[in-house]
Amino acid sequence: xxxxxxxxxxxxxxxxxxxxxxxxxxxxxxxxxxxxxxxxxxxxxxxxxxxxxxxxxxxxxxxxxxxxxxxxxxxxxxxxxxxxxxxx
Length: 88
Prior knowledge:
Helix content: 25-40%
Largest sheet: 2 strands, antiparallel
Structural class: alpha+beta
Radius of gyration: 16 Å
Oligomer: single chain
Number of strands: 2
């Protein structure tokens, strides 16, 4: 997997990404929701993986994306091997 860890000491976020922590709509004083907005769908998996690893209760977070073009293809044999080997 691509490592998007920032190495520049004055840059703390992914390129073209807005991150915010919002009050939970039903429990504003007890819980929060982390929101990631980005213009490159490549970052969708980054956020999903990050949040899945941070979850203490091990419930997989929801991922909602809006994509304006059709670029989906069934993964080939090599891509399927990579997906099986992902350590999430």
